[in-house]
Backbone:
């Protein structure tokens, strides 16, 4: 079906509905679900049909459009009185990616400035704006990040940060795409346990672009680095605290520690919508835990008395382990509060 990043769309707005590519079914099947309600968008985010910090924010913005359409239809005069409940519902869909709250705040502000006319055209234009800005930011970050890599050959990425996780093109995967366009490189992707974003999504996405990729288990990364096969680790972020600490997919912190140990550079690529300027440090970021059954699989019951599981799906990488954060507003080397603050 799709043959390149230009036609991988995690989210598509069509007429009066949001089409959501069900990422749980990839790579075997490309199935879109049509959302015509805020509830449906909430479920799509909560169940990870759509995932990845920027894509979650964009989906939520369209969710507000659908909520407003519904509220306005049933109560054209008092629709604003109840829409706060819809925003709260969307905000409860996932806790860690700050892009969700950032996008909802943008939509809330527009609502607060509106009169009593049909809210849909204005809100839809804002949601489309959020979507388009994200794509533009990704292309810009892709170019800027790729310049930093120079002639480096071995690039390792984690999770999925591509077109599927964003409005399009991708953050860390956008840098890899741009870098590969300049020069062929060895791309390594971790499986990204337990949800397998690397295997199911990143490998699939790169294949659509005919970019060869080598999958490694998460636990093979240190050995791969020790063999000198990796010059840069390039990852995305779900939330960046004001001091540069980064919350990202579980396993990112291990990669950063391993990278430092082996003299490998560590790059984080994220739009400024991923920076939580209010949060002083990463320790304050809420980390989502998902179902133990993701680890226990078919081997053990999640009601087993003796065998438990611990399944945080993000971790915090301290700023000290990060060589550079690439945003659409600028590049921050050796991030700390002052240096990150310069792009605010
Ligand atoms: O649980 P997920 O798949 O939503 O986690 C996604 C990640 O951790 C990504 O690395 C992050 O959102 C950046 S995506 C551009």
Residues:
């Amino acid at each position: 079906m799709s043959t390149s990043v230009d036609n991988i769309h995690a989210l598509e707005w069509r007429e009066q509905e949001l089409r959501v590519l069900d990422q749980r079914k990839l790579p075997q099947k490309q199935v879109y679900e049509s959302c015509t309600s805020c509830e449906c968008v909430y479920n799509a985010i909560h169940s990870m049909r759509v995932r990845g910090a920027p894509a979650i924010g964009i989906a939520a913005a369209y969710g507000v459009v659908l909520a407003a359409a519904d509220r306005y239809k049933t109560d054209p005069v008092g629709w604003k009185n109840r829409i706060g409940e819809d925003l709260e519902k969307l905000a409860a869909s996932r806790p860690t990616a700050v892009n969700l709250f950032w996008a909802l705040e943008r939509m809330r502000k527009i609502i607060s400035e509106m009169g009593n006319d049909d809210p849909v055209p204005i809100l839809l234009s804002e949601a489309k704006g959020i979507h388009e800005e994200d794509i533009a930011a990704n292309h810009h970050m892709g170019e800027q990040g790729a310049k930093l890599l120079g002639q480096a050959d071995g690039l390792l990425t984690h999770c999925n940060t591509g077109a599927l996780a964003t409005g399009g093109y991708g953050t860390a995967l956008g840098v890899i795409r741009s870098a590969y366009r300049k020069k062929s490189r060895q791309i390594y992707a971790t499986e990204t346990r337990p949800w397998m974003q690397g295997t199911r999504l990143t490998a699939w996405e790169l294949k659509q672009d005919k970019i060869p990729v080598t999958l490694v288990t998460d636990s093979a990364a240190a050995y791969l680095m020790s063999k000198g096969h990796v010059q840069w680790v390039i990852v995305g972020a779900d939330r960046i605290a004001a001091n540069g600490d980064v919350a990202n997919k579980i396993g990112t912190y291990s990669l950063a520690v391993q990278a430092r140990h082996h003299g490998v550079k560590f790059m984080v690529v994220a739009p400024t919508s991923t920076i939580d300027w209010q949060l002083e440090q990463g320790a304050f970021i809420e980390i989502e835990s998902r179902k133990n059954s993701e680890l226990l699989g078919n081997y053990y019951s999640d009601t087993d008395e003796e065998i438990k599981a611990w399944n945080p799906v993000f971790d915090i990488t301290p700023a000290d382990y990060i060589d550079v954060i690439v945003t659409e507003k600028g590049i921050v080397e050796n991030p700390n509060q002052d240096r990150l603050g310069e792009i605010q």
User: Anything to note?
Assistant: The CA atoms of residues 41 and 59 lie 7 Å apart. Residues 120-149 form the longest helix (30 residues). The mean pLDDT is 96.
